Amino acid sequence: MLVFPNAKLNLGLYVTQRRPDGFHSLESVFIPLPWTDALEMLPAAPGQPTHITLTGHPIPGDPATNLCVRAYELLQADFPQLPPAQLYLHKIVPIGAGLGGGSADAAFALKAANDLFGLSLSPEALESYARRLGSDCAFFICNQPVLAVEKGDVFEEINLNLKGTACVVVYPNLHISTAEAYARIVPQPPKFPLREALAQPMSTWRETVSNDFETALTPAHPVLADIKNQLYDAGATYASLSGSGSAVYGLWEKGEPAAVAWSAEYAVWWGVL
Ligand SMILES: C[C@@](CO)(OP(=O)(O)O)[C@H](O)COP(=O)(O)OP(=O)(O)OC[C@H]1O[C@@H](n2ccc(N)nc2=O)[C@H](O)[C@@H]1O
Ligand SMILES: Nc1ncnc2c1ncn2[C@@H]1O[C@H](COP(=O)(O)OP(=O)(O)O)[C@@H](O)[C@H]1O
């Protein structure tokens, strides 16, 4: 079974509270971004253990602890009938970019195992496995725009239609660890409630929708502000850091992005949402 785990963008991100478990409560709207990896899952050859073959961007860490393998093993613990699996992951989405790529791979591995081996798990059951793998992993089970609260793993519906919006995402080849990014934040309530702000025309978001990580990380990484300014110069209606960075995106409510000569060291995706 071949699936294409997609990235996500955060529209607004407010870190509101430090929780007793050391994690943080947040408020953010997650939307799917059609920048994808490719993940294939099939039963392993007879006598072979579960194994992952990795191509594309190198992924830090031991392949045996790759999030796709961990997702599969989590299901195997509850469904001993699952055979060893052979996984192939071609990594395209930048890592440590605030695009949730690793979480997407894990969520799509859960969904692929469910379909391939007929486990008949509901979306809610898959979400509870996903929550055990990462805070933003559960989003990728239903993979539609939501207002995320708590640890980013509890969702409220939001009426937001960005279909047809042009989008440019720029990753400046800067790996920012999510844990370190959270450590730089002083939690506080949002200045403008996110749901209400996003209900207004996109042209107002520049003044009302922000990302606490962008404020905290830009002084140490001025390249983030440079990219954002270039996106606005190219006509973006709204531009922001995604998640804990370092990818910065622009959205065009109408029209097309003007051409920008991005550094050859950057990874750039553009398309329509
Ligand atoms: C910041 C966000 C916003 O969408 O996205 P990314 O920038 O990673 O894409 C997410 O909260 C990232 O979620 P995820 O990447 O799944 O984080 P996890 O693996 O669960 O946690 C990594 C580390 O981030 C911190 N963490 C994460 C989530 C949260 N609500 N509070 C936290 O304090 C903890 O220090 C944790 O050890
Ligand atoms: N399949 C995977 N793809 C990406 N990262 C993975 C994967 N499996 C494990 N990881 C680990 O997860 C970390 C965070 O990855 P990622 O989800 O891309 O970050 P972010 O959500 O900040 O963009 C990486 O540094 C890597 O060590």
TrEMBL record:
<dbReference type="GO" id="GO:0050515">
    <property type="term" value="F:4-(cytidine 5'-diphospho)-2-C-methyl-D-erythritol kinase activity"/>
</dbReference>
<dbReference type="InterPro" id="IPR036554">
    <property type="entry name" value="GHMP_kinase_C_sf"/>
</dbReference>
<protein>
    <recommendedName>
        <fullName>4-diphosphocytidyl-2-C-methyl-D-erythritol kinase</fullName>
        <ecNumber>2.7.1.148</ecNumber>
    </recommendedName>
</protein>
<keyword id="KW-0808">Transferase</keyword>
<feature type="domain" description="GHMP kinase C-terminal">
    <location>
        <begin position="205"/>
        <end position="260"/>
    </location>
</feature>
<dbReference type="InterPro" id="IPR014721">
    <property type="entry name" value="Ribsml_uS5_D2-typ_fold_subgr"/>
</dbReference>
<dbReference type="Pfam" id="PF08544">
    <property type="entry name" value="GHMP_kinases_C"/>
</dbReference>
<comment type="similarity">
    <text>Belongs to the GHMP kinase family. IspE subfamily.</text>
</comment>
<comment type="function">
    <text>Catalyzes the phosphorylation of the position 2 hydroxy group of 4-diphosphocytidyl-2C-methyl-D-erythritol.</text>
</comment>
<dbReference type="InterPro" id="IPR004424">
    <property type="entry name" value="IspE"/>
</dbReference>
<comment type="pathway">
    <text>Isoprenoid biosynthesis; isopentenyl diphosphate biosynthesis via DXP pathway; isopentenyl diphosphate from 1-deoxy-D-xylulose 5-phosphate: step 3/6.</text>
</comment>
<dbReference type="InterPro" id="IPR020568">
    <property type="entry name" value="Ribosomal_Su5_D2-typ_SF"/>
</dbReference>
<feature type="active site">
    <location>
        <position position="136"/>
    </location>
</feature>
<feature type="active site">
    <location>
        <position position="8"/>
    </location>
</feature>
<keyword id="KW-0067">ATP-binding</keyword>
<dbReference type="InterPro" id="IPR006204">
    <property type="entry name" value="GHMP_kinase_N_dom"/>
</dbReference>
<keyword id="KW-0547">Nucleotide-binding</keyword>
<feature type="binding site">
    <location>
        <begin position="94"/>
        <end position="104"/>
    </location>
    <ligand>
        <name>ATP</name>
    </ligand>
</feature>
<dbReference type="Pfam" id="PF00288">
    <property type="entry name" value="GHMP_kinases_N"/>
</dbReference>
<dbReference type="InterPro" id="IPR013750">
    <property type="entry name" value="GHMP_kinase_C_dom"/>
</dbReference>
<keyword id="KW-0418">Kinase</keyword>
<feature type="domain" description="GHMP kinase N-terminal">
    <location>
        <begin position="66"/>
        <end position="142"/>
    </location>
</feature>
<keyword id="KW-0414">Isoprene biosynthesis</keyword>
